[in-house]
Amino acid sequence: MQRLQSRTAEKVKALCRLRDSAKERAETGGFLAEGLRLCRDIAQYLPARELYATEKMLSEHPELTNLAAQTFEISDAVAEKLSDTKTTQGVFALFERPAPLETLRSGGRYLALEHVQDPANLGALLRSASAFGFEGVLLCSHCADWFSPKVLRAGMGAVAKLRYACYDDVNELAKALRAANIALYAAALERAVSLEQAPALTDAGLAVLIGNEGNGLTDEAVALADVTVRIPMMPNVESLNAAVAGSILLWHFRSLEEAAQ
Amino acid sequence: MQRLQSRTAEKVKALCRLRDSAKERAETGGFLAEGLRLCRDIAQYLPARELYATEKMLSEHPELTNLAAQTFEISDAVAEKLSDTKTTQGVFALFERPAPLETLRSGGRYLALEHVQDPANLGALLRSASAFGFEGVLLCSHCADWFSPKVLRAGMGAVAKLRYACYDDVNELAKALRAANIALYAAALERAVSLEQAPALTDAGLAVLIGNEGNGLTDEAVALADVTVRIPMMPNVESLNAAVAGSILLWHFRSLEEAAQ
């Protein structure tokens, strides 16, 4: 087993760049995950190139050496350096980032996000999408980076289960959906049908589109939608948390058919 | 108008204690809110004792002087000292904390929380409870403090609209619910009916009980519930974000009848 003991080693610096920079992740095709459970969860779905763990963790969990092609024993100092959390468990893995979807599946169910920026919201939405039978997430207009440590943590491994695609803007997204004959449902407050009246299951594919935390969807996005729906609320209430609103739509349009088989 | 210019003034120190300490808030019966919109929202429901705003804010929004019994013009330095955020707007208000509920209303709808600790989750749940026609929130076993700056911010003023009560533990909560003949619905993963099979509207009152972010409800809480419900999910998914799971239950058991009147 190789050792990685110095905080200033080139390899440690490279891993920190991978942790901190979306650009670095895109260029190298990898991402860094932290934590025993998260690394194990992701490894069920994506190939791990390298595992890094402290001596203590490796002696408590010897099976960790099977998780990746290569294992490095790291010092506590290196673990602290690599960590994005207050107290680190001392386990990290470098995963291969899956390729984005090139085309959407006709009949598929997708969560689409326009300019969702809070990593905790994005992570919570990913968990909901994965729980309610959506197969992929379509990001447009500068959402929080999918493979950042905070999204990985808030998403609890859902990132690894879901397919994804990125679009420059909502026009590109709408074009991709039309090409696959997938209906676009947008959450909006005005000129929208109540979610209670929206048919829950459709045979055709659908994409549920959620907007920015503070500002909601752009007018452009609402105009491109096939159906706009609103979540009925008490009259003196203006809005819900973005992850909550999105998750209620995902719950309404869920498809757990595979679960019953 | 009085002025408050020095960061080290006794009054400024007292306001910082109010911002930071749940004990101080309980003892003085007040709480401090920050931000133009939040202060205005809360003032629709609760009496404001004092308003603090910078010269700039007071000249842009002269109607702010009507918001509280007394207004103080504060310096930028005092605004920064009082602020809990990265960049402050320079508006704060000291509100009177409403008294907790002494008894529950038979036929009432409540959100009950056991040991929910993340202020963002608590705030998101409050917004959902307020949006879906729940009249109060019942906190037990050391939840995040209801009147803390982070909960106020995440809750977007919902704190001011909802009545609340605190209980030492889930036993005390169950006693109060039984006394008012209110059914306790608990979210649980095992030995639970699917939410799809749970009747949505009941004439009797109900309380929806949500547990801690990491550990869910205690066994004691599950044992005390009249009905345990689970949100059906795909088989390879273990859990949802706590605020999302709770909000889906609140949505299912919503009562927007007043909205239609």
From TrEMBL, chains A, B:
SUPFAM superfamilies: alpha/beta knot, L30e-like. GO terms for cellular component: cytoplasm. Keywords: Methyltransferase, Transferase. Pfam families: MRM3-like_sub_bind, SpoU_methylase. It comes from the Bacteria. The keyword Methyltransferase applies. One of its GO terms (biological process) is RNA processing. InterPro entries: Alpha/beta_knot_MTases, MRM3-like_sub_bind, Ribosomal_eL30-like_sf, rRNA_Methyltransferase, SpoU_MeTrfase, SpoU_subst-bd, tRNA_m1G_MTases_N. Residues 32-101 form the RNA 2-O ribose methyltransferase substrate binding domain. One of its GO terms (molecular function) is RNA methyltransferase activity. Belongs to the class IV-like SAM-binding methyltransferase superfamily. RNA methyltransferase TrmH family. This is RNA methyltransferase. It comes from Candidatus Ruthenibacterium merdavium.
